[in-house]
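Review form for a predicted model. The reviewer records the input and the model, then writes brief findings.
Reviewer: anonymous (R2)
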Amino acid sequence: MPRLLDVSDDVRAEIGDDEADRLLAGDNNPGGYDCTSCRTPGDPEQEQTSTVLFVGDETAVLAFAHARCLPSQVVRVAEDQLQGAVQAAAGAASMPAPEAAGDGAPAQAVLGITSGLVLIAGELHPALVVEPTGPISRPGAEGGGDDFLPLLIEQGFMPVTELSEAPSTLSGWSVLLAMGQLHAVLQPGTGGTSGQVAWWQAHQPLQVTEGWRAAANKTQHVIVFAAPAGSIGRQPREDVLRDALDKAAANGRLVAAMMPLAGT
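Model under review:
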């Protein structure tokens, strides 16, 4: 029986035609695998399977996923993430463009992220809430200030005044859930870069609840909310998180976008 394996053009370009052909012929990988997204068994002899290539600065790791969970794609991640060598606290990551406001000196803004299920219009949506630890200013800006929300609105996020309906999908962005954990929020490549790059990336992959992962795999989307520093906080329960989101929306301090789950 022919292997039901998809090797995308991007993956083929990275690994070469010979390696791609060996994969398709079944020479270079075992018959069964654990899906890199949902972590359940898969079989490329029996079901559509995607090749997913994680690429760092020096290392590349080829993984397999059910085609229903992830498309075949190249995902660029930090080298230390592939090596598993960094023991940094989960939940902090760098936002490449803005700078931390306050002293006028360039600095990477540290973003915190929280996952939870949010009820909107009678449907539970998997959600991520992104909040910086301090004010965000535009690159090169002087005099401080907080431009976090305007910067995101310019990228296509929409202001939220009440959580009555789900936001529209933001083209080119996606949420990467791999190996059963949250790895990154991806944005379109800039400056002629093809594919996607990490806007937020976990220093160490983040655990999500079984309920959150099940909802994400079912809906194939994630709502990403963002708020300025001090608007939401790290809330211990989803009902408290919802209250904080409602207050931030009412105060004009919340934006949101729908993103496909690890879509391209």
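Findings: Helices lie at 9-15, 17-25, 79-83, 148-155, 210-219, 238-250.
Further findings: Residues 238-250 form the longest helix (13 residues).
Recommendation: see findings above.
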